[in-house]
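Feature request, filed as a ticket because there's no other form

It would be nice if the structure record came with a short human-readable summary line next to the tokens. Right now we just get the raw output. Example of a typical job, pasted below so the devs can see what we mean:
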Amino acid sequence: MQDERLDERSLSKLRWRCRRGLLENDLFVERFFRRHEETLTTRQAAGLLALMDLPDNDLLDLLLARKEPDGELAAPEVHEVLHLMRMPPN
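Raw output as currently delivered:
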């Protein structure tokens, strides 16, 4: 998987895809984008998209570290993005 920076169009599409129905998840996602959108790579975007395929409650369990990714979701890029998303607010 590549580590190229996302272009503006891809970043915009990714932000739109990451909109969630659960406010708690949206807060994690928004904080992630505020911190990392300038340096987000295609590899990280793939990890983020894999997380966005989850139902809201499953995603929240991962974000709150109640669970860890398993099976196909246990890819390195998913772990990397999850680590970044779990970082506490400044």
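Something like this underneath would help us a lot:
Residues 8-86 form a domain with the DNA polymerase; domain 1 fold (CATH 1.10.150.250).
The first helix runs from residue 8 to 17.
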